[in-house]
Amino acid sequence: MPKAKGKSRRHKYSYNLNRKRLYRSARRRAAPRIACSHIRHAWDPHKSVAQNLAEMGLAEDPNKAVPIPKKLLGMEVESDGQQPGKKIVRKPYVVNEMELEASLPEKKSNTLSRDLIDYVRYMIQNHGENYKEMARDEKNYYQDTPKQIKRKINVYKNFYPEEYKDFIASLKPEKMEVQ
Q1: Greatest CA span in the chain, whole angstroms?
Q2: 8 Å CB contact between 60 and 50
Q3: Integer Cα distance of 169 and 160 in angstroms
Q4: I want to staple 89 with a disulfide (CB 3.0 to 4.6 A). Which of 57, 74, 82, 149 is the partner?
Q5: Which residues contact 47 (CB under 8 A, 6 or more apart)?
Q6: Does the keyword Nucleus apply (predicted)?
Q7: CA dihedral in degrees (90, 93, 95, 100; nearest 10)?
Q8: Rounded Cα gap, residues 144 and 136, in angstroms
Q9: Higher pLDDT, 43 or 10
Q10: pLDDT digit string (tens) for 91-119?
Q11: pLDDT at 67 exceeding the cut of 60
Q12: 14 confidence band (pLDDT: 50, 70, 90)
């Protein structure tokens, strides 16, 4: 079966098309993505990024904001103590709100999955601290080694210390009844 006409020919580059203008206009339309809500609310879309950040008292380029001293580079230069280009901060509340948010204690968002908690509790309930026996258990679906099981139990102990103590305390009366 013959090939379709025109499929094998080389595509010609269009020299008359201004790709710079197309790219620039697409970039201009896209607004910057801002993660911090404080900055998002104070942002003025009619100003440049540098102007917006300067008004909020934030640095656009960290290398310019905190320059490396000349002493560290090997050259010693004396300065008269004046800071060139001191900028006026018109929106200081943005920095204040960000500092306040950063000073709050961090929430512990680390949690374990319900399946892992159930797995660890089952293993402790049936085998106590015998990790080799746990590794041979039929519920060990992922074929964890004794060290891996021990590590999972230690993670559970660290994440939920009170719950672990209560669980161990609830196991002791059951063992006394059996004996």
Answers
A1: 92
A2: yes
A3: 14
A4: 57
A5: 55
A6: yes
A7: 170
A8: 9
A9: 43
A10: 888 889 989 988 988 877 778 899 999 99
A11: yes
A12: confident
Task: Tell me how long the chain is.
Answer: 179
Give backbone dihedrals phi and psi of 37, rounded to 5 degrees, phi first: -70, -30
Q: How far apart are CA 137 and CA 173, in angstroms?
A: 24
Distance CA 9, CA 4 (A): 11
**Is residue 154 within 8 Å of residue 148, measured between CB atoms?**
no
Structure tokens at 104: 């709050």
Amino acid identity for residue 56 in this structure: M
Closest CA to 124 of 143, 145, 152, 160: 152
Alpha carbons 115 and 108: distance in angstroms, whole number:
20
The first and second tokens of residue 111, run together, are: 């949690």
Half-sphere exposure of 122 (CA within 13 A, CB side): 14
Contact call for residues 57 and 95 (beta carbons, < 8 A): yes
Report CA torsion sign: 136, 140, 142, 145. negative
Predicted local confidence at residue 106, as pLDDT: 81
- 3-state percent helix, strand, coil for the chain, nearest multiple of 5: 55, 0, 45
Predicted pLDDT of residue 147: 97
Q: Please check the confidence at residue 141 and state whether its pLDDT lies above 70.
A: yes
